[in-house]
């Protein structure tokens, strides 16, 4: 069987619910031809984008797992090594020429560097008569979600209402895996020299386990998600974001689980709060596509570029290391550093502390998060940081400044989460642990607070007040 179709996988590392893989397989089968899959690691480019070692490690594991699955279907996977996006047009074209490839298939990416990469690859391939077949973006509603005036939404709630309407009109059935195209191939041996360590005990690089986690969450926790999702000690969130970030799970797979669970429990799927969280992911991705300047370190609200952020290296290092003297912030940062993941409520607390109380430039915090997160996605991370900094689209009002101690008392009432990640405070009582007294800090070898909450809050609000009229 002659292989003339090539499927180029990026952050869509899965067999099921993969438009490029599925439609390439159909097209090749109708022509009595075959497909191959390529993955193009670009470790220097990932470093430029601040991607974490944890994400790189999970990516490597998922590539190996996927290669084994494809081998059972008789579909070969090849690794084309390159350091940067700029090397890919020549690398992919050379592969296509050497292997008589006539068609290349991939799912559309939205960040500006990725779009420029894809355009350069397509232009180079066109010179050698290789046709490019670009499939839908890997989001839940792949079409543009626009207002009645045909403009992109800048506020989430009307976006969500339109998004749900469009979702109800589309087929959400996951695309199946491609049919076997030949006898099973030997298990491939892939030499991924850029592999990095990650918490495989928390996120096994196994597509079947990812799918099991999805269905277990929807069966047992999705119904109570709204009431329990804000408490970091509770195992109440899906923790599927690392698999979604690398495409080990597809959007229609998540929808299928939500629809089925809500149907079994006679609930409206439109009311699922977890579905709304997935919609936020779409919202930030579509914003990035409509406003590409977001990919260039610029705030959505241009007037906030006039803010004069503080640059205190000692405070920045204390925040990174989880030694700010605010127990809930420190617990959050240590969770990030130890696991590559942080509970969503704590992401808001840590980012608000950084931008509103330390009054540090949100871009620096955004980059640090990306450098540690196993689930780091540029659009969601950028959107979350700009929300916290009140510089972004549909952001928190600038005068809303999280009080970290109050957040701690509300969402970690007995201090269980703090005790897990700040063990030096473990023996303190449930009241003291949120804001230890000076003598307790000394006894526990725990630092004094790096900032004074009340004046820091007032200073941040005053800085934003000065922007009025700009």
How does this structure look, described?
The protein is mainly alpha-helical and 470 residues long. Helix content is 48%, strand content 6%. It has helices at 19-30, 43-48, 53-72, 88-98, 112-126, 156-168, 207-220, 225-228, 241-245, 251-264, 273-290, 313-321, 327-339, 344-357, 362-372, 378-389, 404-411, 416-421, 438-444, 453-465; strands at residues 3-9, 34-39, 77-79, 103-107, 131-135. Strands 3-2-1-4-5 form a five-stranded parallel sheet, with helices on both faces. α6 (156-168) packs across α11 and α15 packs antiparallel against α16.
Helix and strand run:
EHEHHEHEHEHHHHHHHHHHHHHHH
Classification by helices and strands: mainly alpha
- Main β-sheet: number of strands, strand sense, barrel status? 5 strands, parallel
> And the CATH topology of the largest domain?
DNA Cyclobutane Dipyrimidine Photolyase, subunit A, domain 3
Strand content: 5-15%
Could you say what the CATH architecture of the largest domain is? Answer: Orthogonal Bundle
How many distinct domains? 3
Say which CATH homologous superfamily of the largest domain is assigned. Answer: DNA Cyclobutane Dipyrimidine Photolyase, subunit A, domain 3
Low-confidence stretches: none
Mean pLDDT metric: 96
What is the gyration radius calculated from CA atoms? 24 Å
Chain oligomer state: single chain
CATH class of the largest domain: Mainly Alpha
What is the strand tally? 5
Q: How does the overall form come out from the CA principal axes?
A: globular
Provide the helix percentage. Answer: 40-55%
**Count of helical regions:** 20
The span between the termini is: 65 Å
Q: Which strand order spans the largest sheet, edge to edge or round the barrel?
A: 3-2-1-4-5
């Amino acid at each position: 069987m002659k292989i003339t179709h090539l499927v180029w996988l990026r952050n869509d590392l899965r067999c099921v619910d993969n438009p490029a893989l599925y439609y390439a397989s159909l097209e090749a089968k109708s022509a009595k031809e075959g497909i191959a899959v390529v993955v193009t690691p670009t470790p220097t480019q990932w470093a430029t984008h601040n991607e974490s070692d944890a994400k790189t490690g999970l990516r490597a594991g998922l590539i190996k797992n996927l290669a084994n699955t494809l081998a059972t279907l008789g579909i070969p996977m090849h690794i084309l090594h390159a350091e940067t996006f700029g090397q890919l047009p020549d690398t992919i074209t050379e592969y296509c020429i050497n292997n008589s490839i006539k068609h290349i298939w991939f799912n559309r990416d939205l960040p500006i560097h990725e779009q420029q990469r894809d355009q350069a690859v397509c232009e180079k391939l066109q010179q050698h008569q290789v046709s490019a077949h670009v499939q839908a973006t890997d989001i839940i509603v792949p079409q543009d979600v626009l207002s009645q005036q045909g403009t992109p939404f800048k506020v989430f709630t009307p976006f969500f209402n339109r998004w749900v309407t469009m979702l109800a009109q589309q087929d959400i059935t996951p695309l199946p895996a491609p049919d076997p195209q030949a006898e099973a191939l030997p298990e491939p041996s892939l030499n991924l020299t850029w592999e990095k360590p990650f918490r495989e005990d928390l996120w096994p690089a196994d597509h079947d386990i990812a799918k099991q986690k999805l269905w277990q969450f929807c069966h047992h926790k999705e119904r109570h998600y709204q009431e329990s999702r804000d408490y970091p000690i509770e195992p109440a969130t899906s923790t599927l974001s690392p698999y979604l970030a690398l495409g080990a799970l597809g959007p229609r797979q998540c929808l299928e689980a939500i629809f089925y669970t809500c149907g079994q429990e006679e609930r409206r799927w439109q009311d699922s709060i977890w579905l709304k969280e997935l919609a936020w992911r779409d919202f930030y991705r579509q914003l990035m596509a409509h406003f590409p300047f977001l990919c260039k370190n610029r705030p959505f609200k241009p007037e906030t570029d006039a803010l004069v952020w503080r640059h205190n290296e000692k405070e920045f290092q204390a925040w990174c290391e989880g030694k700010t003297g605010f127990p809930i912030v420190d617990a959050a940062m240590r969770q990030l550093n130890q696991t590559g993941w942080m509970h969503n409520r704590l992401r808001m607390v840590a980012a608000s502390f950084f931008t509103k109380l330390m009054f540090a430039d949100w871009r620096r915090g955004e980059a640090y998060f990306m450098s540690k997160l196993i689930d780091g996605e540029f659009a969601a991370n950028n959107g979350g940081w700009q929300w916290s900094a009140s510089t972004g689209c549909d952001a928190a009002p600038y005068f809303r400044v999280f009080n970290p101690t109050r957040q701690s008392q509300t969402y970690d009432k007995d201090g269980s989460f703090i005790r897990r990640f700040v063990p030096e405070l473990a023996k303190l009582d449930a009241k003291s642990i949120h804001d230890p007294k000076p003598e307790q800090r000394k006894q526990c070898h725990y630092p004094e607070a790096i900032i004074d909450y009340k004046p820091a809050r007032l200073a941040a609000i005053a800085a934003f007040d000065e922007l009025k009229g700009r």
